[in-house]
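From: lab user (bench 3)
To: helpdesk
Subject: output format question, protein + adenosine-5'-diphosphate

Hello, I'm new to running complex predictions and I'm not sure whether the block I got back is the full result or only part of it. Here's what I submitted:
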Amino acid sequence: MAPLLECTDVHVAYPGKGWGSSPIKILKGVSLDIHRGETVGLVGESGSGKTTLGRAILGFAPVTGGQILMGGQDYAQVPLAKRKHMASELQVIFQDPYTSLNPAMTIEEILSEPLVVNKVDNPKKVIGELLERVNLPPNSGGRLAREFSGGQRQRIAIARALALRPKLIICDEPTSALDLSTQRKVIDLLLEIQEQTHVAYLFITHDLSVVRAISHRIAVMFDGEIVEQGTAEKITTDPDHPYTQRLLMASPVANPAEQRLRRTARQELLARQRAEGEDRWVVASA
Ligand SMILES: Nc1ncnc2c1ncn2[C@@H]1O[C@H](COP(=O)(O)OP(=O)(O)O)[C@@H](O)[C@H]1O
Ligand SMILES: [Mg+2]
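Helpdesk reply: Thanks, we reran it on our side. This is the complete output you should expect:
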């Protein structure tokens, strides 16, 4: 079966600042497929272009080359009148549940917006089902977004993303603003929803340990290019690319003894890579 999403040699560039300056290339030929019901993790440091790829898929970034197909169709070629339907197949969850939801709106208002716009029958009933799906109390509809904790707000954002039964949800660092135990609960919820609905996720994060828990496959981005992709197991235990090896070594482990071993192994790896001339893969967040 053809992939749900096919990105082929995607380039994104922003116009340079000032007259006559050359464009700023952000994505330099990214190819990535996502199948139905699959989670693909996208990791890489801050500034590597992860959000830009998400925006390109959503149609919000200046794609200057390559092709993005959703269900075999090129978004950019679809007439505006038809786009609304396609747009409902594709949803997004952002990092910060404090800014992505209007704090002064009630949960019911937030969830009914996409339902009303898309003329979904019986929005009240659908809202009840959505609240149940994300494990929020059935009576939370009348409360304001600002009355909820970070984890609960992220549940509301997930419910809103699910409202139109999308095929793909782009999750852009959805757990990065949450504490560890809340992160775990949100990941578990996303996994449970995927089992029930067969939705696919593009899960963007700088954190390899988070992405491992949720992904089937992982793609690693460095400076606007995907340098390696493979199964979650392979990428998080035995990566081939020197940058992924460094990223893995830089990700913290919970156990202090293991962390000490990790530090030694990391120094050995860096020394080996230096000796082999693989020195340009700097991991800034280490
Ligand atoms: N609208 C824009 N105009 C110019 N440059 C941008 C714009 N948006 C993002 N960038 C640049 O693109 C690069 C990648 O950003 P981003 O995709 O947000 O990275 P990530 O999500 O991996 O942290 C950064 O260098 C950023 O400054
Ligand atoms: Mg980002």
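A quick orientation on your result: Residues 14, 24, 26, 44, 46-52 surround adenosine-5'-diphosphate (ligand 1) (CB under 6 Å). Let us know if anything else is unclear.
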